[in-house]
Amino acid sequence: MTAGQRLAQDAAEAAELRAYRTHPDVIALRVERVRAQVDRLCWAGIVLGLAFTMTNVQSFAADGSPVWSLPWLAAWLLDPTVSLVLLAILRAEQVTARYQVSTGPWVRRAKWFTLAATYVMNTWQSYAAGSLSGIVLHSVPPLLVFTAAEAVTDLRDKLTEAVNAAFTEAAPEREPASTTGRRRTRGRKGRKLFADYLDEARQAWTPDVVITPAWVRQVTDCSRGLSSRLAETLAAELDGGERP
User: Given this model, what pLDDT does residue 170 score?
Assistant: First the structure.
């Protein structure tokens, strides 16, 4: 086997490997694994943070009641009541964010109320005593839970968009170029799809233009990785009978 044949074989193997690595189903599988890791870590942090606040909320609710008295025992129910409502909202948002379904304003209000109630009850005694160290100590867990609850929803939404972007860029491989070119759709929040870039390049093309990735980037402002596929698709489309 000559050196050129070995290089050709290596190039073919590299192309096959890259095709599998960039396949939208493989990308979706990787994103799902990352999503599972993110969910586990965020849920662990949120549960631990809420568990840390439990004793301070119980002390706030008991208000000096004798140990093992009914008011003292009932005070232990306050923090789990608030925490369970918060966890139920976060669990629901886990599903809605996965499918990019927006929730109503009352969902966010309920979440903020439960977080604000946890923070106030957890830090009330420290504020009353004027203890700066106590305020800082008991503010960190509820604030961490608050920021994590907001961040995890956005993270799930962006991970879903990453999967959608992988499928969008692979659209020409799954359907004919002419069909993809005629169907102009917009992604959620105005995100440009492959068909949008292709339509812009098609409208900007003139018979005296040589279709290259650099020209595609110039007229569509797309990424370098996408410009090559756009140039190939547009050239094949024009060579198929649309070139004057």
Answer: 57
